[in-house]
Amino acid sequence: MAKIRTIAFQMDHVSSINIAGDSTFAMALEAQARGYELFHYTPDRLTMRDGRIFASIEPMQLRDEKGSHFTLGERQRVDLSTIDVIMLRQDPPFDMGYITSTHLLERLHPKTLVVNDPAWVRNSPEKIFVTEFADLMPATLISRDPAEIASFRDEIGDIILKPLYGNGGAGVFHSARDDRNFTSLLEMFGQMYRGEPYIAQAYLPAVRKGDKRILLVDGEPVGAINRVPAETDSRSNMHVGGRAEPTELTAREKEICARIGPALRERGFLFVGIDVIGDVMTEINVTSPTGIREVKKFGGADVASLLWDAIEAKRG
């Protein structure tokens, strides 16, 4: 394959990101430093015409300056098969719009390298893919049947209930065995997530000590941060109040990474973030995992550089 010259980022609009903790921004800064020509577009600009995939893209220049972090050039309609690499980086929800974009990008991959592989992203929803490693997980139920969920809570005790295709801690609830709001909570989920199952997992008290995000590049662990929830919240996501702190991988976490690494490589997942609480894995994030800037901030690896090394190796 030819060497990389052009990179297009399919992402939420660059104006909307918080550069202090945005992994897409970190990836793009590193690509720019390597001399690649960067382009920007949002998923709504994807078009298929007679089997060819187009998008209205803009040349993009970045600066690591809060409040003045980007410049976009004139928009142009481009056949995306002429682009060397596309970074699939818009945030979920993992809805029909997201799924459709993977179908379109699949027409380009691997001649145009799409990271991560769009077909496998589509076929590996984060909270379902992880269940292929059930022995590494807490007790987990996927259902929208209130009786099944109630029975699961009766058996397990405290549970976490969350939408199956959510992200970023949205819609995540801790329900104790004696929670008198439980029936109302299930009614609310039924109204908000029509037709979709939910995921219930055993509540892990170890989350008070942190929910570790481990980043893997081409199936190998390259960095981690610990995310500690606020005193008044059971969620550790940083944009809802979680606190990031430096950490090292335990022997158990290295074992988890070794177990899942071959499956990640088989699916073409060059960049993945997994979540580990205590000794168990709760999610495998393959859509737009974050944590790159936090790892580097605490003196860890330059994950963006390692990712581009892996991408360059794939492109030849």
How would you portray this structure in words?
The chain is of the alpha+beta class and 316 residues long. Helices cover 28% and strands 28% of the residues. The protein has helices at residues 23-33, 96-106, 118-122, 126-129, 146-156, 182-192, 251-266, 292-297, 303-315, and strands at 6-10, 37-41, 46-49, 52-62, 70-72, 76-79, 85-88, 113-115, 140-143, 159-163, 173-175, 198-202, 211-217, 220-228, 243-246, 271-277, 280-285. Strands 1, 2, 3, 4, 5, 6, 7 and 8 form an eight-stranded mixed sheet that branches. Helix 1 (23-33) packs across helix 9 (303-315). The protein is globular, with a radius of gyration of 20 Å. The N and C termini lie close together (5 Å).
Protein traits:
316 residues, alpha+beta, 8-stranded mixed β-sheet, 5-stranded antiparallel β-sheet, 9 helices, 17 strands, 28% helix
**What's the overall geometry?**
globular
> How much β-strand is present in the residues?
25-35%
**Terminal Cα span:** 5 Å
* Rg (CA only): 20 Å
Total DSSP helices: 9
Order of helices and strands: EHEEEEEEHEHHEHEEHEEEEHEEHH
Supply the helix-strand structural class.
alpha+beta
The overall strand count is: 17
Averaged pLDDT: 94
Largest sheet: 8 strands, mixed
- Helix percent band: 25-40%
Uncertain spans? none
Write the topology of this structure.
Layout: E1 6-10, H1 23-33, E2 37-41, E3 46-49, E4 52-62, E5 70-72, E6 76-79, E7 85-88, H2 96-106, E8 113-115, H3 118-122, H4 126-129, E9 140-143, H5 146-156, E10 159-163, E11 173-175, H6 182-192, E12 198-202, E13 211-217, E14 220-228, E15 243-246, H7 251-266, E16 271-277, E17 280-285, H8 292-297, H9 303-315
Helix pairs in contact: 1-9
